[in-house]
Design goal:
The complex is a heterodimer of chains A (about 350) and B (about 550). Chain A has about 350 residues and is mainly alpha-helical. Chain A has 3 domains: about 110 residues, no CATH class; about 80 residues, Serine Threonine Protein Phosphatase 5, Tetratricopeptide repeat; about 100 residues, Serine Threonine Protein Phosphatase 5, Tetratricopeptide repeat (Alpha Horseshoe). In chain A, about 65% of the residues lie in helices and about 0% in strands. Chain A has 17 helices and 2 strands. In chain A, strands 1-2 form a two-stranded antiparallel ribbon. Chain B is mainly α and about 550 residues long. In chain B, helix 2 packs across helix 6, helix 12 runs parallel beside helix 14 and helix 13 packs across helix 14. The longest helix of chain B is centred in the first third of the chain and has 26 residues. Chain B is elongated and about 100 Å long. The chains are: A mainly alpha (about 350), B mainly alpha (about 550).
Chain lengths: ~350, ~550
């Protein structure tokens, strides 16, 4: 067991190094050793896949890297992150080495010989890596052809393939991080928020919150290995984090399209509560301009009337109970303001009037 | 070897030119052209690799100075990269350019450039959306991790868009524009054998747009059909049915492919033929009359061309059997009237022929036989009925259900010596073996057969008949037999039946066969007869352990000899 764990550590180091310029010191023998270790670990994966105790021990060791604080920069320098990754660790290593310009010519030449032995006995152990790499290239070409040919971005954001894939990846990572450390997901998400473009991140978060309850990518493999992963749990972690960060939830509600937010609010009542709270807050910032006859804000960051109306309109098109909740909120705000029926006195009156006439 | 290299050089020029025209496959015309040449180009790449792997990096450049251009252009062509094994072979070729130990800057540069290309095929192809890249990197994922998932999601999304058209019918908003569907079918051409694409291929095949003309690209159908015939793709029957209904050349190719397989594989083994037949999905698809008619037409043509070759006959009988089975399995109530399958035949005749002997007690088999014989006789000998297509059509119809003629022969044999052989059965036998005969000739044949039967009957009585006695009784006089070949064939059939059924048959079987099989063709015929008989007995559940054992032994021995 110990030697197994040692092997794992050593290989993780190798994998981490394989992306750096340090490989310039590698010769053919080093490459051979690295590939051998990878093959050995793949064999371990196959043999002990059903062996819960060994698998757990290995996973725990791999999850150590999540426990390290303060990741350097935006992208964690990851090696293997879970037991499953052992199943194709040779592929991971090979791809990194192939892309690494620092690898010397002789070592590279050797690598190519090992990876691409040429036509021979199909299905043999050596041929498998060759076929996996070729399949990868083929799939890439397929994605490229679909995108430049017939594929169109789906207007319904949460159905869009790229969004869905990113969302699935996010939830998968959260699962791993969560298994390593209870507070891991929160910290991890905060780090992402700090380093990644906000717009895309928020969209992916929304898409993740809208994924169907059991749609993780590796569901078939998971059930084989006996650890079912449910999108529901990680979704809860994500939601918890989102609601806990006022800056994030404000940006979430402000920047995402109305329809998308309505869907999220419909699925998650906690979000609808916060969303409505923010909307009422924004509404209170507007005042009525008698001359122009419209509601306007004073600051540049104030939400304009059109947008406010658009969001409420979208919410009112949602099925109950959301729709009812929204109308109740609006009516109570109107009552608080004095329950006027005449336009121009309370924004809530005007909104309700506009919604009724528009509906 | 020199010849090969000359051929390769001229090919090289040809493909260089092609690649320059194709560029990045962005226009419709170039895409069309590329799809036509994909298999040949792959073959060329393979040949290049075979040549390159013998050389070291410097020799390669000497021999093919523009190889860099060729390979670079190929790398930029997504159609080629997406096709079958082309990407793998391309990688092999690139590997040949890598110099283990570059001596000068030129060689180093070549290395660097080649590595760039390899990297491009395997590690690059970013999603060309910066935010997505940043996001996935931020999570710690490399493209290799998520590309399979992304592809799956894209395929699912497209499939649901295609299926939506089905359900929404007239909802113009959600309908996928026909031009997009067409372009999608183009994109699929190199990718039909990629397992991830199976749902998309299926969705395209079963897609029905609102336009009157076919929107899918014909090359798409060709590619799917090829992949299906070579077992490189798994499709449900419904999808294959759509394929064949929408694209006639695919159906024809499928039938020809089956014919080729039957001819080249072990002949004279009906069980094997049945397996091939069922695997091909043709019998199931033939439940749709349009497909049945096309397949039937091809069988008819094959029979005419080969003048009734027994292999083709056997294949057609197996096909019909499997077809009837599929038809019964499909639905209790037939969706289409029988007339749609056999438009030139009298429906009542078809009904009788379709009866399964299995459903009738063996003792009553003579009844349907008699009816079949009478009905056929009426059609064939009625000269005023010009529209029935002459005796050939009737014979062709009967040939589908060849089992009846075999049963007739068996019946005649097993009841020999009891009473006069029924005229109806004699007529049926004579007709099935020689449909073109005029009434006098047929009558003559019937007389001959009757004579043979009575001789055989007498032999039953004698204690130990010898092989020669038997042959003499059958009128098998060796060389110079005056009777027409069809008649001789009939006689042989009766003889063989006798051997299988008569109590003394076992003892002289081998001798008789040795004496009978004067030529390879006749030997072939005997083997075919034994195989066909066993096959029929298995399907009808005929209980005759002694005969069965003998037939099996003989078949094994004769096959071993061949």
């Amino acid at each position: 067991m110990d030697s197994l764990l040692q092997h794992l550590e050593r290989f993780s180091e190798v994998l981490a190094v394989s992306r750096t310029t340090h490989v310039s010191t590698w010769d053919a023998a080093t490459v051979r050793r690295a590939l051998q270790w990878a093959r050995y670990l793949r064999h371990v994966h196959r043999r002990f896949g059903r062996h819960a105790r060994i698998r757990k021990a290995l996973e725990r060791r791999l999850q150590n890297q999540w426990k390290q604080e303060g990741g350097s920069g935006p992208a964690p320098a990851l090696g293997l992150t879970n037991f499953q990754a052992l199943g194709h660790c040779d592929l991971l290593l090979s791809l990194r080495l192939l892309a690494n310009r620092a690898l010397g010519d002789a070592a590279f030449h050797y690598l190519l010989q090992e990876l691409f032995p040429g036509p021979g006995v199909p299905g043999a152990e050596e041929g498998m890596l060759q076929d996996s790499l070729a399949l990868l290239a083929r799939r890439r070409a397929a994605v490229h052809m679909l995108r430049s040919g017939a594929y169109r971005e789906n207007p319904v954001l949460q159905e869009d393939s790229l969004m869905k894939t990113q969302a699935e990846l996010l939830l998968e990572r959260l699962q791993e991080v969560g298994e390593a450390h209870a507070e891991g997901p929160g910290r991890f998400l905060s780090r992402l928020w700090e380093h990644l473009p906000h717009n895309n991140f928020l969209k992916v978060t929304a898409a993740a919150l809208l994924l169907p309850p059991s749609s993780p990518r590796h569901q078939e493999e998971e059930s084989e290995l006996g650890s079912p992963r449910r999108a529901g749990e990680q979704g809860r972690e994500l939601l918890h984090w989102l609601l806990g960060k006022s800056e994030v939830i404000a940006a979430f509600c402000r920047n995402l399209p109305a329809g998308l937010l309505t869907s999220v609010a419909g699925r998650h009542p906690e979000v609808s509560r916060v969303y409505l709270g923010l909307l009422t807050d924004w509404g209170r910032h507007l005042h009525y301009d008698l001359q122009k006859g419209i509601w306007i804000g004073t600051e540049s960051y104030d939400v304009p009337w059109e947008e406010l109306y658009g969001r409420f309109q979208s919410l009112c098109q949602a099925p109950p109970p959301l729709k009812d909740e929204v109308l109740t909120t609006l009516k109570s705000c109107k009552a608080q303001d004095g329950d006027f029926e005449v336009p121009g006195l309370s924004i809530w009156t005007d909104l309700l009037l506009a919604l009724e006439s528009g509906a | 070897m020199a010849q090969d290299s000359i051929g390769l050089s001229s090919d090289y020029q040809f493909w260089m030119q092609k690649l320059s025209v194709w560029k990045q496959a962005s226009t419709l015309e170039t895409q069309q052209d590329i799809c036509l040449y994909l298999p040949q180009f792959q073959e060329f790449l393979r040949q290049m690799y075979e040549a390159l792997k013998e050389m070291d990096s410097n020799t390669v450049i000497e021999r093919f100075p523009t190889i860099g251009q060729l390979l670079a252009k190929t790398c930029r062509n997504p159609f080629v990269l997406a096709y079958d094994e082309s990407q793998k072979i391309l990688i092999w070729c690139l590997c040949c350019l890598i110099n283990k130990d570059p001596q000068n800057s030129g060689e180093s540069q070549l290395n660097s450039w080649t590595r760039g290309l390899l990297s491009r095929i395997l590690a690059a192809f970013r999603s060309d959306i910066k935010e997505v890249d940043l996001f996935t990197q931020g999570l710690g994922y490399a493209p290799a991790d998520y590309y399979p998932g992304l592809l799956k999601n894209m395929v699912l999304s497209l499939v649901s868009e295609l299926r939506e058209n089905h359900l929404n019918g007239f909802n113009t908003q959600s309908r996928m524009a026909p031009e997009r569907v067409r372009s999608l079918s183009r994109v699929c051409v190199p990718l039909v054998t990629l397992p991830d694409f199976e749902p998309l291929v299926e969705a395209l095949l079963t897609y029905h747009g609102q336009e009157p003309q076919e929107m899918l690209w014909p090359e798409f159908f060709d590619a799917v059909n090829e992949a299906f015939l070579l077992r490189k793709i798994c499709l449900p029957v419904s999808a294959v049915l759509c394929l064949w209904l929408r694209h006639l050349p695919s159906l024809e190719k499928a039938v020809l492919h089956l014919f080729e397989k039957l001819v080249s594989s072990e002949r004279n083994c009906l069980r094997r033929i049945e397996c091939f037949m069922k695997d091909s999905l043709l019998p199931e698809a033939a439940c749709h009359p349009a497909i049945f008619r096309v397949v039937d037409e091809m069988f008819r043509y094959a029979l005419l061309e080969t003048e009734g070759a027994p292999e083709v006959l056997a294949a057609m009988q197996v096909f019909t059997r499997c077809f009837v089975e599929a038809l019964e399995k499909e639905n209790q109530q037939p969706k289409f009237a029988l007339k749609t399958y056999f438009p030139y035949a009298s429906p009542s005749l078809v009904m009788v022929l379709l009866q399964r002997p299995k459903d009738i007690p063996q003792g009553l088999w003579h009844r349907p036989l008699k009816r079949i014989s009478e009905m056929l006789k009426e059609i064939v000998e009625d000269e005023t009925q010009g529209s029935s297509g002459g005796p050939f059509e009737s014979w062709f119809l009967l040939a589908h259900f060849g089992g009846w003629a075999d049963i007739a022969a068996e019946q005649l044999l097993t009841s020999v010596g009891d009473a006069e052989p029924p005229e109806a059965l004699l007529w049926l036998l004579a007709f099935s073996s020689s449909p073109g005969d005029g009434p006098q000739q047929r009558a003559q044949t019937m007389v001959e057969v009757k004579a043979v039967l009575s001789h055989l009957g007498r032999l039953l009585g004698s204690p130990t008949p010898s092989a020669r006695d038997l042959l003499a009784a059958a009128g098998e006089s060796g060389e110079g037999d005056p009777r027409p070949p069809a008649c001789q064939q009939l006689t042989r059939r009766l003889l063989l039946n006798f051997l299988l059924w008569a109590p003394g048959g076992r003892a002289m079987a081998r001798d008789v066969i040795t004496l009978m099989a004067r030529t390879d063709e006749i030997m072939h015929e005997i083997v075919g007869f034994l195989d066909q008989t066993l096959y029929r007995w298995d399907h009808l559940g005929v209980d005759a352990p002694g005969s069965r054992k003998l037939a099996r032994e003989l078949l094994a021995e004769l096959r071993g000899q061949a």
